[in-house]
Design brief:
- The protein is α/β, with parallel strands linked by helices and about 200 residues long.
- It contains eight helices and six strands; from the N terminus they run E-H-E-H-E-H-E-H-H-E-H-E-H-H.
- It is about 35% helix and about 15% strand.
- The termini are far apart.
- It binds adenosine-5'-triphosphate and magnesium ion.
- Adenosine-5'-triphosphate binds next to helix 1, strand 4, helix 4 and helix 7.
Length: about 200
């Protein structure tokens, strides 16, 4: 069974994440898609929303979609979490590398050579990346060959939205409706998430 992993801070999860993940799933015949929100950073670099809120919003955004689930693997880990560790954990749970797909947007993939232990990532999974407005597809050519050999590029409808912009809109009282799933919008409003 093909398994897709979509990692992210998801602060908050929005339709750009969902669209990229779903298009990757359909394109590659992935049967199960696992969303993996990042844990709380050990040292507070900037004010990321607590992981339990980000986890709750990811659950609300994906609820009811048969192929989707949300993993607490990075949230429950006490130490700093790296993509390589998460992928290794899925492999140790019995998934074969040929069945494991790690999905990102283009901005994330273009920075892969700065990830911890990235040299070993292509041994563990197929990489999948979707275009994202503002990031040139030509950047892929500059990635090392051993990355490109395991990388599949998919073209999705351009969705020029980021969590950063949604946080700013929520803070300023500009609407976030139709940028995030309805239940995520309600969660943000009732918990006044980005107001402080
Ligand atoms: P922030 O502005 O806080 O960085 P973000 O919108 O970039 O938030 P992340 O949680 O950082 O969201 O990203 C998680 C993953 O989703 C990354 O692989 C990123 O490239 C991808 N992604 C996010 N938004 C989009 C989008 N609009 N289109 C395609 N991919 C996206
Ligand atoms: Mg980002």
């Amino acid at each position: 069974m093909k398994i897709g992993i979509m990692g992210g801070t998801f602060d908050p999860i929005h339709y750009g994440h969902l669209l990229a993940a779903e298009e990757a799933r359909r394109n590659l015949g992935i049967e199960r898609l696992i969303f993996v929100p990042t844990g709380d950073p050990e040292y507070k670099n900037h004010d990321i929303t607590p992981s339990e809120d980000r986890y709750a919003m990811t659950l609300l955004a994906t609820a009811g979609v048969l192929e989707y689930s949300v993993s607490r693997i990075e949230i429950d880990r006490k130490e700093a979490t790296y993509t390589i560790d998460t992928l290794r954990a899925f492999i140790e749970s019995g998934i074969k590398p040929e069945d494991l797909f790690f999905i990102t947007g283009l901005d994330a993939m273009l920075s892969i050579t700065s990830w911890y232990d990235y040299e070993h990532i292509p041994e563990l999974c197929t990489l999948v990346t979707a275009n994202r407005p503002g990031y040139p597809v030509s950047g892929i050519e500059k990635l090392p060959k051993f990355i490109r050999d395991k990388l599949k590029y998919i073209e999705i409808p351009q969705f020029a939205i980021s969590s950063t912009e949604i946080r700013e809109r929520a803070r300023d009282g500009r609407g976030i409706r139709f940028l995030v799933p309805h239940l995520v919008e309600i969660y943000i409003e009732s918990n006044k998430l980005y107001k402080r």
